[in-house]
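Here is one chain, start to finish.
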Amino acid sequence: MTSPLEFTSDGCTGFFDTWRGVDLQPCCTAHDLAWRQSPGDWSLWFGSNVDLGVCFYQAGVWELAVPACLAVTTIGAVLFALKGKDGNRG
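Its structure:
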């Protein structure tokens, strides 16, 4: 398991790091960390996708909450299954 001190995030991979002046990187970093800490655990991974949408909503960008959750759940599922976000088979 990766500790937060060993972890670096690339922000909102393939998505907006900011939207309407709202910094989304804290939400994306938390999502990346959850993804990294639960390789191969589909239930924890899916939960982190829902948490990303909730974080966007709570940050004030409600219009991106559902699209972000759907994007990381559909497109991200392929990446998660094939190699994991960090390029290693999860």
